[in-house]
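Q:
Got a chain?
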Amino acid sequence: MTGASSGPRTGSSGRAMRHDLQVIADMIAPDSRVLDIGCGDGALLDHLVHDKGIDARGIELSQDGVNTCVTHGLSVVQGDADTDLADYPDGAFDFVVLSQTLQATRAPRELLLQLVRIASGAIVSFTNFGQMRIRWRLAMFGRMPAIGDDGTHWFDTPNIHLCTIRDFVELCAELDLEVERAVSLSRFGRARELSRFGSFANLQSEQGIFLLRRKAG
């Protein structure tokens, strides 16, 4: 996927999806079984279920998020990604999605192993804290910049494990996970394959979106 974003995509309910969710939706094959972990208000689920006819369900920590999803006819339960995935059997899904949630979990390493255990493909998106904009603000002002659409600061952000694209790639190698696809997302929603950036991917990418699989054998 290359080129400039054509703007937020909307589902059948009229709700707009974030740019990273649009990329994730395009990675999911038809007729798949999908679990969206930390599904928020269910924008991705709504698109997968009602527009693509996919068997998709979700887990969300926030009761408000669960209520919003159920109101839109989505199958979502309240749960904690750090503790509840152990209850799912091996290979229960074709894809699991973890969008903008990894950095807010207590044990990211163990969570990634759970993802590839319960599904053959794991799609993970996260903010790249190695991007040039963050480095520049730290160098110029000596303060942690506000990150994300809600502009949260270091003292009120839910993020507890910040990582860069390089950090994530090295962790995947350590866990023996295969990166089947890696996409860079710019601040304005422009999606490009990370391989096009080469060694500059860690500087130029605002977000990383990875499709992971457990290596065969």
User: Anything to note?
Assistant: Strands lie at 33-37, 55-60, 76-78, 93-99, 119-127, 177-185, 191-193, 207-214. Residues 74 and 195 are 36 Å apart (CA to CA). The chain has one domain: 19-214. The chain has eight helices and eight strands.
